[in-house]
Predict the structure of alcohol dehydrogenase.
Amino acid sequence: MRALQLVEPQRAELSQVPDPEPAPGEVVLAVTGAGVCHSDLHMLHARRVVFPLPLVLGHEVAGTVAAVGEGVSGWETGAGALVHLCWGCGRCRACVAGADNYCDAHPRRTVPGPGLGHPGGMADRIAVPARHLVPLGDLDPVAAAPLTDAGLTPYHAVAVSRSRITPSSTVAVIGVGGLGHVAVQVLRATTGATVVAVDTDEARLRSAEELGADRALLSDEQTAPALLGLTGGAGVDVVLDFVGAPATVALAGDVVRSGGQVTLVGLAAGTLAHTAAPPPIGLPWGVSVVKPYGGTRRELAEVLALSRAGRISVEVERAPLSDALAVLDRLERGQVRGRAVLVP
């Protein structure tokens, strides 16, 4: 079968590899769609890769059951499925509580998953432990693939911020691209908060307003004063930063209110500076900083429920698997709106 493999650090190629066979407890999916994410670019550009190579990329995966391994029940050939992002051990304290995304078998590290330690979905087929599958139901088998990350990750980011989000709250969403545009929808669908979208791209800001943002601010030197002005100088209750660059992380620290929360999702190497001294030095009193990862299987089911109800969706561009390298190049150039999905 065809598979986009990271064959060595900073080099990927579309290769022919053997078809996977289901081990006991596994299901093989015929891939119907694999989302392309900035995390794939991080993997591609890393000088040192922590996972064994070669590795098939792709962590946003939808497919139909092609083969079922020994001991698997509840899955029949032809059934549609989505693959959960985080493959926890299923036995530790975190996993037993449902938080596979923070599995103790991988202490203080990234919990592996498809394309992130295990063979991913940018291929014709993928083998998946059955416990990491979620039924697709009547969702589109291509367009639904990004819900496993572009839907799940912002949903979880909102979930871990929810104690600070009420109908009187203001939430700033920095970066309304692949993940941020879903965060706007999740906030609109599940909270009564005032949602302010922040981005450098005017087209993305217009889209964010169409998706439910109450205000849209172009990211520049006037953004912090504007956010403070919108809140009477108090600052915003929650900042969801889906960029994580130095400038956006600094902005988050400059505009969060006392008792608020900065939720850092983006991975663009920004540093949140904090000096342990009374305000106005450092962060305001009572501020929490959270670094969420992925989400739980329960949260993925809730994302799918919102999608089926028409409350959230991911803007999707479809491309053939054979164009995978070109799509990654377009993503790096900022030429993809929403999510690109590779179709075998």
The two ends are 10 Å apart (CA to CA). Residues 2-148+314-343 form a domain with the Quinone Oxidoreductase; Chain A, domain 1 fold (CATH 3.90.180.10). The CA atoms of residues 181 and 207 lie 8 Å apart. The longest strand covers residues 26-36.
